[in-house]
Amino acid sequence: MAKRFLMIVLALLSSLGGMAAYAADRHLEYGRWEMGLTFGEIPIMAKSFKPGFTVGYLLNEKVRVRLVVQSEDHLQRDGSSFNAQNTGLDGLLRSKERTGMRFFFGVDYRLASWSPYLSAGVVVNGTDIERMLFDNRQRQIGDGSYNSAMKIVQTRRSGWGPALGIGYDIKLNDRLDLNAGIAMALLGDTPIPDIEIVGESILSGDKKVLRNQILDKYKTNSHNNYHIFNLGLSYRFGRDK
User: Fold this and answer.
1) Nearest to 236 by CA among 28, 9, 31
2) What is the pLDDT of residues 209-224, one digit of tens each?
3) Are the beta carbons of 95 and 132 closer than 8 angstroms?
4) pLDDT averaged over every residue in the chain
5) 113-142 pLDDT per residue, tens
6) Alpha-carbon distance 150 to 136, whole Å?
7) DSSP per residue over 154-187, as a string?
8) Span 29-40, mean pLDDT?
9) Is it the case that residue 225 has pLDDT exceeding 90?
10) 188: Cβ contacts below 8 Å, ≥ 6 apart
């Protein structure tokens, strides 16, 4: 997966370079490159950064072509995990997640220099895996009652989709911007995760009841669509015309 992402990133960077060369060849006045660092998580909420980078090319003051790439990351949400809450089970000991690489490639458009920008493009997410561990206690699952420790592994496989988004740049000076944005694949259904339920002597029919309960709640959370969130700082080369 990492090799595939690298090839895609290199191809998209090549596309950006081609656009810049086209702009230079047509003697467009405004064209400027920008590069930046980005975080895909807010540390005080997720104890994680999910670092990455952005590369963009401003065709004019309203239109920008942009690539955002974020690394895979490891985080521990425990009781704040939506997936752990979806199980409806008591006795959570811990919930650890490995999120896959993410990137967005598309176009940003703003009505004016002070306004938010709207984004349209493609978002790609790597595989996300969350492992939830529950203590040993009596639980009602489906039609059965079980006294067992439990482990649930939820895997959302990698995928992509056409995406729409919104964001805002705070201009610090002619070269530096603070920025935040989100883009999400809104067309089609929410990707269905694989769910593995491990517990002593739990019948397959009762596992199916629990799995369906988890999936029903999972589908109602739009955050489970393929998406990318970025918060960061970017630097523009050259000067405004």
Assistant:
1) 31
2) 999 999 999 998 888 9
3) yes
4) 85
5) 889 999 999 999 999 999 999 999 999 999
6) 7
7) EEEPPEEEEEEEEEEEEE-SSSEEEEEEEEEE-S
8) 83
9) yes
10) 161
CATH match of 2-236 with 3.30.505.50: no
Q: Are 239 and 174 in contact (CB under 8 A)?
A: yes
Residues 177/169, Cβ–Cβ less than 8 Å? yes
The DSSP line for the chain is -HHHHHHHHHHHHHHHHHHHHHHHHTT-S--EEEEEEEESS-HHHHS---EEEEEEEESSSSEEEEEEEE--EEEE-GGG-HHHHHT--S-EEEEEEEEPPEEEEEEEEESSTTS-EEEEEEEEE--EEEEEEEEEEEEEETTEEEEEEEEEEEEEPPEEEEEEEEEEEEE-SSSEEEEEEEEEE-SSPPPPPEEEEEETT--HHHHHHHHHHHHHHHHT-GGGSSEEEEEEEEEE-S---
Domain ranges of the chain: 2-236
